[in-house]
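ugh ok fine here u go
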Amino acid sequence: HMECSFAEENRRFVSDSFAGGDAEVSFGKGELDLTNVKHFLGGATLNTDVSFGTLELIVPRFVRLSVKSDKSFGSIQTFGEPDLNAQEVLVVNADVSFGSMNIRYR
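structure:
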């Protein structure tokens, strides 16, 4: 769980596997780096809530994202793309209000 209010927070998740989690940003800037995750479990889901802030989500190229979004005066942008043979999937439930979420493949 990552929560950032009226601040800036950078978090790098290092693990053999990722099943899911939550990231909340309100009136601040957060960065969640998942590039050190070795395996995304089936059904892995990341719930994000961004209000009046920015969330930078950094993901490895071996995972495909399935983004489900609810935006109110907000934006979600993706930079880069997964590998052609990417087999693993991460579901991202994104709620963005008066803010932005940037997804970056690395």
